[in-house]
Amino acid sequence: MSILGPPKKKKYGEVFGVFLFIISVLIFISLLSYDPGDLSDKSEHITNKIGVLGAYISHGLMLVLGFSSFLVPIMLIMLGIVKVMGRSNKVMFGKLMSIVLILVAVSTLAGLFCPFNADEDLYKRLEWGGTVGLMMSDLIISSVGRIGAVVLLIAAILVSVVLYTDVSLLVVFSWLGGVFSRFKVPRPRFEGRKRLDVSEKEKIASTVDTGVDEAIQSSIKTPVEEKAVVREVYRESDILPPIDLLKEPPDIKTLVTRKELEEKLKILQKGLAHYGVRIGKCRVGSIGPRFTRFLVPLEAGERISRMENLERELALLFKVDKVRITAESGKSGFIGVEIPNAKERLVYLREVLETERFVEARGNLPIALGLDQQGEPKIADLAEMPHLLVAGATNSGKSVFINAIILSLLYRFTPVDIRFMMIDLKKVELSVYGQMGRAIPHLQYQVMTSADEAVAGLRWAVSEMEARYQLLAKVGARHIAGFNQKVEGKKHEVIDEPHPIFSSPHSYKLPYIIVVIDELGDLMSTQGRKIEVPLTRLAQMARAIGIHLVVATQRPSVDVITGLIKANFPTRISFRVSSKTDSRTILDRNGAENLLGNGDYLFMPIGQSEPLRLQSPLVTSEEIKKVVDFLAVKREPPPLPVEEREEEGEEATDELYDDAVNIVVSEGQASISLLQRKLGIGYARAGRLIDMMEKNGVVGPSEGSKPRRVLRDK
Which of 89, 107, 462, 541 has the least CB density, counted as fewest CB within 10 Å? Predict the structure, then answer.
């Protein structure tokens, strides 16, 4: 019995089952002591062991069903067992119908082989097959003959047995084949053929249907040859950091034993049956670094929601913090139940970077996401995402994951290929990449640690996006890869001089720009629309020209992840969050609240309906420092251009200010897009002109998507 105690409905089922058992015993005793003379006028006393009631019951059953009446108490006992097991009323009705079919078929079969003729005593004929047997046998014989009747009745008995017991005929025939095979003369076996002993046979037979052996084998991986090849690749270049700077993972051992898996299978099977969920035989799906996935087949008509509502109950049964139930395997007919392992193992960044999948990845910006639920490395292309939104509560592993993305790019690309722009309001997570006069050469500008710098940085990114689109239009390219392929690192005839963001003063290749924002919640709470507008514009348009966003927040609420931001970040990741509401905000579904923390996360790739559960690679502060020290040059990253760093309290001037005022006054409305069209300027400059007019009382405050009101008359 479960530690939670039986539910109220199951208690009623147990009482009803005991009642059926008592009735069955009484009916059986009355049939054993049946005497046809008990109810005659000549009888002086009742000989039935159950008395008058037993005489009437036995007499009635014998007249209706004949000798097949002895099946009635047996069937009632089996029906009581089904009720004690907590099956629903619908299942009970199906079992009852199968019992009626068995009784009718057996009575009819007895009536077919009745030894008494029609001219003899009718009462003896009724005792043999009963009224049902005689009537049905005469009807069937007149329709299909005696042989056809026998075939139909045997088929009806087999069908009713299958419906009652839920046992497949294939299983019965295979069992009968095994029984008859014992009487066969054994064939001579060839010499040298290995013969399994009894213990090995039992071991194989006990696990072949549960997937235990397959799961254990798949969880043991030793990619020694693969590592040797990858080390040579990393050492070919002196610009890329050596892989030896990262910690080498320990030898991978079996996380769970066969005994533990079989014990968990029994607990899962009994626990779900205890709560009334009709299931088949559970299997072991896969063994991951931190949890084991079990596959549960539901019987026809069973609702998935019934299992999904049992997450807390199963966590209590398995004595773990969280259990996650998902219908990801619904296409194969299974429901996934993910239970944490008693022994967990860490996933190191080095073991993912050393794999052949990462080294031979053909994407433009491959990043290491970690290991999946089968323990296989998961690599994704940031350029195809094209932007990544990461959410998770404190200590869920979000910042470590951001550092893992940065290092996986540093191990793959040089400053000629990619540049970083980092925003870190906490001043502790990303500042290591550029501080104290030293910075990695991939850093475009110094790490921005204030909200005003963040706004200015995003404005610069918008201006850069517009400038790049102008370059693509001149060359006739549709995206950054086509532009770099056309210029091939050399001067193009339509480009007068190198763009400021070109890889070098003598190069015309455009590098990818990765904008990393460590905490979006603080920016949205202090800057609001000043952050949302450029961030949304970048997310909408920056993919083709090679600007990609990696945004993280520990507060995935609707005021931080607005509908506009969410719609433009199709690829999202959620680490453990505090509530189902936060999970639905970031992933549009529940599940993230049941994660284990410490790098356990759900990955929702673009174009996929169900998230993948992955384990993020671990990156320590020591490893980050070693990589930064190897790459760092003795220089301060350049600050943002002065025009992008205007403080709110400064009196800024612009030669186009008067023209902008005349435009908004004559048009009767003010918006950034209006100034861009009329003056032919970029987004950042048009936004500054609108801010200046708001300070001077020319236009009113922002009203969301509506144009600003003009406060000055013509």
Answer: 89
Question: Residues 598, 322: contact at Cβ < 8 Å?
Answer: no
Angle (deg, nearest 10), helices 8-32 and 71-84: 170
Please tell me the predicted confidence (pLDDT) of residue 615: 94
List, as one string, the DSSP characters of 622-688: HHHHHHHHHH-BSSPPPPPPGGG---TTS----TTHHHHHHHHHHHT-B-HHHHHHHH---HHHHHH
First to last CA, the chain: 85
Q: Cβ neighbours of residue 538 under 8 Å, at least 6 residues apart?
A: 387, 458, 461, 462, 465, 515, 547, 549
Q: What is the residue extent of each domain of the chain?
A: 8-175, 224-340, 363-372+387-642, 646-695
Peptide bond into 534 cis (omega under 30): no
Closest CA to 208 of 155, 276, 157, 258: 258
| CATH 3.30.980.40 is the classification of domain 224-340 | yes
For the domain bounded by 646-695, which CATH number is listed?
A: 1.10.10.10
Task: Specify the 3-state DSSP secondary structure of 488.
Answer: coil
DSSP per residue over 16-68, as a string?
HHHHHHHHHHHHHHHHHT--TTTTSTT-SS---TTHHHHHHHHHHHHHHHGGG
> Which class for 163: exposed (0-12), middle (13-18), buried (19 or more C-beta within 10 A)?
middle
70: burial class by Cβ within 10 Å (0-12, 13-18, 19+)? middle
User: pTM of the full predicted structure?
Assistant: 0.61
Considering only the C-alpha atoms of the chain, give the largest distance between any 2 of them, rounded to a whole number of Å. Answer: 129
Which H or E element spans position 370?
strand 366-371
Q: Are 246 and 349 in contact (CB under 8 A)?
A: yes
Q: Can you tell me the distance from the alpha carbon of 571 to that of 611, in angstroms, rounded to the nearest whole number?
A: 10
pLDDT classification of 509: cutoffs 50, 70, 90 = confident
CA 361 to chain centre: 24
Q: Domain 363-372+387-642 falls in which CATH fold?
A: Rossmann fold (3.40.50)
Please write the tens of the pLDDT for every residue from 313-330: 999 999 998 899 887 654
The least confident of 12-16, 205-209, 357-361, 701-705 is: 205-209
Mean pLDDT of 694-710: 80
pLDDT digits (tens, 9 = 90+) for 149-160: 788 878 887 877
Helix (H) or strand (E) holding 612: strand 612-615
Distances (CA, A) of 18 to 1, 57, 73, 87: 17, 20, 13, 15
**Amino acid code (one letter) for 154:** I
Task: Report strand pairing: 418-423 vs 512-517.
Answer: parallel
